[in-house]
Amino acid sequence: MVPAWLWLLCVSVPQALPEAQPAELSVEIPENYGGNFPLYLTKLLLPREGAEGQIMLSGDSGKAAQGPFAMDPDSGFLLVTRALDREEQAEYQLQVTLETQDRRVLWGPQPVLVRVKDENDQASGHQAIATVEVSIIENTWVPLEPIHLAENLKVLYPHHIAQVHWSGGDVHYRLESQPLGPFDVDAEGNLYVTRELDTEAQAEYVLQVWAQNSHGEDYAAPLELHVLVMDENDNVPVCPPRGPAVRIPELSPPGTEVTRLSAEDADAPGSPNSHIVYQLLSPESEDGVEGRAFQVDPTSGSVTLGALPLQAGQNILLLVLAMDLAGAEGGFSSTCEVEVEVTDINDHAPEFTTSQIGPISLPEDVEPGTLVAMLTATDADLEPAFRLMDFAIERGDTEGTFDLDWEPDSGRVGLRLCKNLSYEAAPSHKVVVVVRSVAELVGPGPGPGATATVTVLVERVMPPPKLDQERYEASVPISAPAGSLLLTIQSSDPISRSLRFSLVNDSEGWLCIEKVSGEVRTAQSLQGAQPGDTYTVLVEAQDTDEPRLSTSASLVIHFLKAPPVPALTPAPVPSRYLCTPRQDHGVIVRGPSKDSDLASGHGPYSFALGPNPTVQRDWRLQTLNGSHAYLTLALHWVEPREHIIPVVVSHNAQMWQLLVRVIVCRCNVEGQCMRKVGRMKGMPTKLSAVGILVGTLLAIGIFLILIFTHWTLSRKKDLDQPADSVPLKATV
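Structure (tokenized):
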């Protein structure tokens, strides 16, 4: 929390006009401020557009401010970065502007005056007179013997170690240590050590003690005192850093030196504290000397191989214990690590992963150079040079029909065809491939796994299917409806075979082909086609039993001008009901029943929605067959009311327009339409019912008022008559 006197005064400036100069801000700061820096002085009211500009701080001369001031661009605070001295400069005139990168001023300049408040930190101009008393005393320094201190001494500090004495009065003692150490002296000349000493850090100190008067003047030359730090076994042996793995070839003889350890101890050299011996911890040896893979010399730290053989590829981490005090009880120890890598020799022959491949079927017309099979061989050796392999065809290829290609270091060989196959000459081949190591092999020779047999079966080739034409052409009016038959693709192959037809490059999606019969029809309306244009697609025919056997032919469509469109004959259709939100049912639309062409089987109807965009958005029409279509809602919600949907029906050159009346309504859970009920004839409306009710209540109120008035007047008349005018009741 900053003290209250550090909050600086800031003059509040009212909002000025854009053309007016901002009023000057005044800030005061005490000189030689001893708090934390930076010290925030005042916050400037920068505009919100400040994020697009750069805050510039300068002096009153316009130059960049080189003084101890800065602006925080995030908070808009003016801050000072160090203490100020009024005697050096009493005032600082600053100005703050907000500028763009091209030096255009967005805001300001805002002048800021910083005053440095004076503090009483200078001596006054008055003179002072002092009396100095000088006395001469005798030097009674007594030299001290060297002091021996044990390192890491566990006592209460500061710990008294010696005392010096000056016989005169008015004496003060000053102590210096070479090198600088944890020593101190008090007013009585007692010398102290203030913390534990370490002989490894510093084994000897030279202390100098001066006797001085109250004015800091020395009485005599300083007194020297030697402090010797005695060594203790307080350092752990340090193993050499773990380096790269030591590489040892497999099958190396016992006694081969692996490495030589040399741990270091920071205790006094030549002492028992620094005498190190070694012991192997891991890997643990098996029973007997013959079960050891490694041995270590306790004195020299030499690590050698034992009688147990090592395998190539092994990575062994040796753990060796280094102990000081020659391994005696109470000493320190460290574990040294040595990584050993057993390198490889070429003692394994390469072998194939699979000895039998195939049978592989190849058609007899396959091109030379085709890859027949890929064989993979492995070598248990680890050295890359020992894994290089050489391959050859050992037998089964007397005619040179096959060949091998491989990369020397890949271990994979490809069997390729280099001549044409003939089913009549050789319906099958058995090729035996052998693998050998390129480097000289150490140990036994190749085994049965060094050979692999590839079985190849030759297939007789069937000719591809043939079509009755190499190029097909058809003409169609651009107004042809979807489903119009253009032509039929037929086979001319003398061999009876089943074909499957397809269109390859029908980019516009205008055409479709029946897979079995080969009939080509229009898949949709030919929107975008122009009379005189041509449209080319590729018809592909595949053998159903042998899909790899196929042929193709081009189909060219010539677009013709549309014939004159006859006038549409609207035909009303009875009303139907559909539910909204949409449910899974629709309306069946039937084509005109009185059509002699359709009755005689000359072609089906084509159905389409009218050109109204709203109708096409809200409704969907799907052709069921040649005479009926299915009308459903395209949207989930359509306004509940009666809709008139135009449906265009075409057949050959004739066209009709059906006006389908559909009532869209809300439905109950059973799917029944709930229609709004109008006012029934002869029944009162809401307004008439309310009027009758109000009139009845009003008549009742008037009747009650009349009765109450009559009763009130009769009672008043009886009260106004004199008492003697009232007849006496007869006595019975």
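The mean pLDDT is 80. The radius of gyration is 58 Å.
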